[in-house]
Amino acid sequence: MNRLYPKGVYLLLLLLMSQMLVAQTTITGTILTDEQVPLEGVTIQVKGHAVQTLTNNRGGFSITVPALPVLLLVSHTGYLKEEFTITTLTPASYRLIRNEKNLDEVVITGYSTQNKKLIAGSIQTINSQTFRDVPASGFNQLLQGKATGVQVNANSGVPGGGITFRIRGNNSINASVDPLYIIDGVFISNTDPIQTGLGQQQGSNPIADINPSDIENITILKDANATAIYGSLGANGVVIVTTKRGRLNSRAKVSLNGYHGWSRATKKFRVASGAETALLTNESRINTVKDNPALPPPTLIAEPESQPTYDRVSDLFRTARTSNYEMSVQGGTDKSAYYAGLGYLKQEGIVRPSNFERYSGRLNYDNYLNRQIKIGTSINISRTWRNVSSNDNNPQGVINSAIFVRSYLPVFNTDGTYARYGSFDNHLALINYLGNDAVGWRTIGNIYGEYAILPELKLRTSWSLDNASEYENNFISSLLAAGVASNGSAASYETKNLVLTNEQVLTFIKSFGEDGKHSINALVGNTINTVLSQSTSATGTGFASNDLTAVSVASVRSGSSAQSRSKLLSVFSKASYTYNNRYTLDASFRADGSSKFGANNRWGFFPSGGFTWRADQEGFIQSLNLFNELRFRASVGLSGNQNGIGPYAAQGLWQSGNNYLDQPGIAPSQLANPDLTWETTRQTDFGTEFSILNSRLFVAVDYYNKYTYDLLLNVPVPNRTGFATYLQNYGAVSNKGFELAIRSTNVKTRTFKWTTEFNISQNTNRIEKLASDIALGASGRNISILRQGYAVNSFQLYKQLYVDPQTGNAVYEDLTKEGNITAADRQIVGNALPRYTGGFTNTFSYKGFDLNVFFYFQQGNKIMNMNDFFLVHGNTQANIGFVPRQLERWQKPGDITDIPRVTTSSLTPEANNSAANNYGGNVANLSSRYLEDGSFIRLRTLSLSYTLPASIISKLKFNNIRAYIQGTNLITITKYGGPDPEVSSQSGNQNTAGYDWATVPQPKTIQVGVNLVF
Amino acid sequence: MKRFTYIYLAFLMLTTGCKKFLHVQPQQQVDASVAITDAVSAEAAVNGLYNRLGSDGYYGSNFISLSYLMGGDIQWTGSQSAPAQIAARALTADNSNVASAWTAIYRTILSANYIIDIVPGLTDPLLTDAKRNQYQGEAYFIRALAYFDLARAWGGVQLITRPTYSKSDQEGIRRSSVAETYAQVLGDLDKAEALLPVTVNRNKATQKTVWALKARFYLYQRDWAKAESYASKIIDDAANYKLLKPYSAFFANNVTATAESVFELGYSTSFKNGHYNWWLPPALGGRREWAPNGNLVTLLNDPAIGGNRNALIAQTAPPGNLWYGKLYYRNPTGTDPAYLIRVAELYLIRSEARVQQSKLTEALQDLNAVRERAGLSPATATTTGDVLLDIENERRLEFAFEGDRWFNLVRTGSVKNVLNITDPNKFVFPIPVSEIIADKYLDPNLGY
C-alpha cells in the first residue's frame, strides 16, 4: 500500500500537469530534523524533472518548478528518504527522520563526507561508545582489537607511555611507520618530546595529550584510494579524529563522568632465591674447574642453602590508582553550537615511581554568520605531567636494580646506607630519589570559515596549529649511583614541536539527471604546512646539597640547543561520480613539494582511483532474496612518505660543534644527495561487504597488496669516503594481507539483545630489496636484523638445537656446515610481527544492564626475553643473579632440558657442543633459547553497567544515569614466560621491536565509575 | 581535472613563491659548498680535524682500547661481545669496535683531505701565508698519523687523498701494500715538516711533533739511525721536553700539557673524553668495564718493577677491593687528555734504536732515564737480547693504559711468545665485514 500511494499521486499529478500551461514557480521551505534542527546539504529534487538543489546551512531551500502541485523528493545521508507533495507557495518546514538502522552511513573521508555505501576506499569508523571508560591515556591505544588492519600494542605498562600503532604493516625502514593523525582537521605531531635518556624505549605517547572522552568517532583510512588525497603524508594510513560538537537548536546537556581504578601487574618478575643463587654459583664454579683442570680449585660459597633472600621485586610493585573526572556541556542556539569539556586523569604506574597526570580542556564552537557563511573553532589545551624512569640497558634503571642484583645480597649496608653492587644502583634509592619530571603543554587549535558560494559549491579555509611543548627537569641526587661521583647532577630540557597548517578546499556536490541518477562529489584544495622543532637543554653537576636541585646552582654547567624546520606545499583534487546509486568511480590526485628533498626531485605526484558496485541495487541480486546489502570495492593508488628523515636530509652538510680546545670546529657530516625524493607506496585493495538474514549478520572482507619502493634508506657506503651511510632512495618493502570483520545480532527481543563482533587481520611483511643486511638492537648485540627476503623486525641468533643429554652442553645449528660455530652461524629464527591480530566482542543487554566482554588476540610474534638473556647466564656474570629458569639446567647425564649445564669455561669456543658456548664463547649467550612465542589472547575488558530506567531518571530530572564496574586485562592466556607478552622495550626504534628488557608489565585493572547527564 | 591542478599549481607558485618557501637552510650545520671559504672557517675546519682525531672512535677511547685490550694486560668485565672478543684476542670480521675505529680514522682523513684540497685556493686576505701553511701542515700531519695507525693495525689500506664530494668519488681504489701505505705516511710527514712552524705546542702539530712521529715511524721501519736522530731532536730540546718526576706528574692533579707531553689531545666541556667512564668503578661514576688484570696489578705494585707507576691503579673500597685504572679519572668533566706521544716514548725509541746499532751503553742510559723517573734502579741487562726485553717490559708498564702494548709486540714479533699468536694473519685486525660488503674494491685481510 505504501508504495502504491505515492505512485498514484504521481500519476495524478502527471495528468494534471499535461493539462496545464508551462509556467515557472519558485517554492521555498526549510528542512528540519525531528529535534527541529535545520539540516544542511539536503538534496531536494522534483519528481519527473531535472531540477534539484541543496539546502543551505539554515536548512532552507528554494527551487524553481514548472507548476504546482509537485512532488519533492528529499534525501539526505543518514535520514530516511521522504516525498512531500507541494500544492501551495507558502513556505513550510518539512521534517526528515533519522534512519536508525544506518546511523553510521556517513563517513568522513579525506577532506569530505561521503555515503559509506558509495565509497570505494577501505575506511573504518569506530564510534567512541565502543571504547569509553577504558583506563588508557591515549585514544590510539583504545583502538586495539577494534579495527581490522590495525596493529596496536602498548610498549610497556607505564601510564602515558609509548604505543606501537601500525596500519597494514611496516612500510618503511628508515622513514616513519606511524600513521598521520588528524584531529578536527589539524595535522598532529606524533614526535615523542621526551629528551631524558630512558634507554631505547619510546618515552611517551604524544597522543595521550588528547582526552579520549572528547572524541565523537575515529575514522581510519587504510587503502590508497582513501589515503592518496593526503599524498606524501598518507602512506602509513590516516587516523581522522572527530571530536564532539554541539547541535543547533539543542538544549544544553551537561555530562559528568568519573571513575576510580586499582591496578596490579598481570604477572610480576621472578628471581631465584638467595639459596638457589648460591647453589647455582657453586655448581658452576665446580663445573668450570672440571672443564679446565688447569684452573685452581673452586672457591665455593659456604652453606649455600642457608643464604638469605632479599626480596627486591615486591618493592617495585604497588597497587596503582587511577582517577578520572570529566565534565562537558554541549548544545546550541539557532545560529551557533558549542561543546566544552574539561577532564582530569591521574594514573599511577604499577612499578614505582612512574606517574601520569593530565588536565585537558576543549572548546568546539560553530557559528552561522548568515545563510552562506559559517565560522568555527576547535581548541584543545592540555597539560600533562609524567614521572619517567628508564628501562632496558640502563643498569641504573629501577627494574634493573631490583632484578639483576643477586638476591642473597643485602639491600642495605650494615651502617644503614643503600647498598650497591656492580654497576647496579639500589632500587629503593631510585624509587625514593629518582626525580625525572616532565611537564607537557599541548595546544591544538583550528579556526575555519566556510562560504557557500552556491548551494552546491562551498569554499572552506582552515588555519590550524599544533603546539607541543615539554619541559623536563631531572635531578639525580648524590644518593644515587649516577650522582655519587658528580655530587649530584641535574638536567633541564625544553622541547617544542610546532605544526602550522593552512588549507583551502573548494567542494562541489551535485546530482542531476532524472531522479538524480548522476551525482558528483568533487573537490580541489591546497595545503601549506610548516613543522618546527626546537630544543634547549642545560645540564649541571656538583651540588652543594640534595635540596638544591636546579641546574642554575650547579658548580659545572653546560648547555645546548637545536632547531630545525621543514615545509610542505601541496595541491590536491578528488572527484567521485555515482551513477544510479549503483556504480561509483573515484579518482584523486595530489602533488606535494617538500623542503626535505633535493632540488632535482622536490615534487611528488600521488594519483589514485577506485570503483564500487552496489550489487544489492541490481534486480538479479534482489531476486535472490538473500542479501540485504552487497557491495564490491576495488582501488589502486600511490601515496608517499617523508616523515622520519631529517629536515635537511638531501643537503651536503658540515656539522658545527666539533670543537677543539674550546675553539669552534666544523667537520663534514653528511654527503649531499640532490636526487633524494619520496618514498612511494603503491597499494591495491579489493573488498566486499554484505549483510544477510534481515541485516542481522554483516561481513566485510578486504585483501590488500602494498608495495613500497624507493625507500628512504641509509645505505652503507664505504668508510673510505669518510661517511658511513648515505640517504638514498633504495630498497622496497611489501605488505600483503587479509582483513575480516563480522557483526552479528544473535538475539534481539524487546528486553534482551546479544551482539557479537569479531575481527581478524593478517599481514605478511617482506623486505623485497635492500642494499645489505642491517643488524641492530640490544645495545650493540645486533639481535634484530633487516635482510632482503625476510620480514622487518626479524631476530638473528644462534639456533640451539638441543642440550646434549650426555654432556649437558648446548648444541647449535652449524649453518655453514664447517664443523665449528662462528658468527656466520647466526640465523634468522623468527620475527616480532604478529601474523594475526584481532578482537572478539560480545555485548549483552537486558533492560538497563549491559555486559560487554572484549577479547584481544595476536598470534605468531616472537619476543626476545632479554631478562632471561641476562639472568640465565650460567654464572658467567659475577654481578648478576638468576631467574628461576636457570634452575632447569642440565645436571646429570640423561637430563632432557633446553637450559645447558652451568659453567664459565672458555676453552675451544669454536667447537659445537663445547662447554664454552653454553653461556659464553662464540655464541656469547645469543641463543634462540631466549626467543619465545609472544602469542596471546587476553580478556581486554569486561564491563557491566546499569542504566537507570527512564521513568526514574526523568523524576530525578536527569537525562541519563549510568554506573558501571569494569575489569581490564583480567585474564591473559600465553605461553610467554616473561611478565607480560604485550611489551616492546626498544620501541624508540621501529626496527627493534619485540624485546622484553626490564620493562614495566601491563596492568590488570578493576574500576568503578558513574556517568550522569542532565 | 589534472589540467586544473596544474593551473592551480602555477597560480600558487606565483602567489606564494613556493620555490623560496621550500628552500630551508639549517642553522646548526652549513652546506658543504660554503663550509670552508675564509680564514675563520678554515680555522674551524682544522679544529674540527683535531676533534675527529680525538673522537670516541679514534683516540677518544675506542682505537687505543683495541691495542690495550689485545695486549693481554687489560680485562673486559662487561657483557658485550665485541670488546669481549678483543680481550680474548679472538676477533671476527664483524667486531663492531674494530669497525668503529676504522670508520673514525677514515672520517679523520676526510677532514684532512678537505683542508689539503681547499685551503691552498682560499683568497681571503686575512688568511696569512703562515696560517695557510700551518693549516695544511696540520692536515698533512694528522693524515700521516691516520695512515700510520691504519697500516700498523690493518696493514696496507686504500689510500684516499682527495675529499669526497659525491658518492661516486673514490670509486675503484684498491688496497695499497703496507710499504706503499707507509710511503704515504712519510710523504705526508715530509710535507707537514716543511709547512709547520718550529714551535712548541703540545696540543697541536708543529714541526717538533712531526719529528717525534718520525722517530716512531722509523722505529716501525727498523731504520734505527733515523729513529735515533729524530728521537734525539726532541730529547735534546730539554728546555721544552723532559721526564717529570714522579711518574704521576704528567697526569695526576688535573694537570694537562706538561713538559712530558710531545702531543696530547685536549678535551673540554664542549668536547668531552668519555674514556673515564669505562675505567672508573661505579662508586666513582664509571662502569669499570676495562680493568687491569691480575698480572698487570702485580707488576705495577711490585716496587722493583712498577716503581711509582703504581699511581696508575687503585682499589675500590671493601668488600669489593677491585683494582681499576686511574689514568683517565676526570669525572664528570671528561677533560682527561688523550696521550699520543710522550717524551718517555722517545727515550725508549732511542734506546731500542741504539741497541740495534750496538750502542748498548747509550741505550741503557736512555732506558735508565725512564726507569729512574719511575723510581727504579738501573737495568742490569748486558746482552742485546736482554736489553731489548727490558725495553719491551718497560714499555708495557710505562704505557700500560696508552695503547702501545699490542702494536709494540706485533712490531717486534714478540707477540708470538708473549701472547702465543703464531698465525701472522692475526697480527692485523680484520677489515670490517660491513666494509667488504659495501665496497667491492676492498679485499679482506686473510684469515678472517
Please name the defining characteristics of this protein.
heterodimer; A: 1014 residues; mainly beta; Immunoglobulin-like; Maltoporin, Chain A; 2 domains; 22-stranded antiparallel β-barrel; five-stranded mixed sheet; 12 helices; 46% strand; elongated; B: 448 residues; mainly alpha; Serine Threonine Protein Phosphatase 5, Tetratricopeptide repeat; two-stranded antiparallel ribbon; 19 helices; 50% helix; globular
Report on the structure:
Chain B: This is Starch-binding protein. Chain B: It is found in: Cell outer membrane. Chain B: Its main location: membrane. The complex is a heterodimer of chains A (1014) and B (448). Chain A is mainly β and 1014 residues long. In chain A, 8% of the residues lie in helices and 46% in strands. Chain A folds into two domains: 4-98, Carboxypeptidase-like, regulatory domain (Immunoglobulin-like, Sandwich); 139-246 and 258-267 and 313-651 and 681-793 and 832-870 and 930-1013, Beta Barrel (Maltoporin, Chain A). Chain A is built from twelve helices and 52 strands. Chain B is built from 19 helices and seven strands. Chain B has helices at residues 2-16, 18-21, 39-53, 56-60, 62-70, 81-87, 96-118, 129-154, 178-195, 207-220, 224-235, 276-279, 294-301, 343-356, 360-373, 384-398, 405-412, 415-419, 433-438, and strands at 29-31, 74-76, 261-265, 290-292, 313-315, 323-325, 338-342. In chain B, strand 5 and strand 6 form a beta hairpin. In chain B, helix 3 (39-53) packs parallel to helix 8 and helix 14 (343-356) runs antiparallel to helix 15. Chain B is globular, with a radius of gyration of 24 Å. Chain B starts with a helix and ends in a 10-residue tail after the last helix. Chains A and B meet through helix 8, strand 25, strand 26, strand 27 and strand 30 of A and helix 1, strand 1, helix 3, helix 6 and helix 7 of B. Strand 30 (653-656) of chain A pairs antiparallel with strand 1 of chain B, so a sheet runs across the interface.
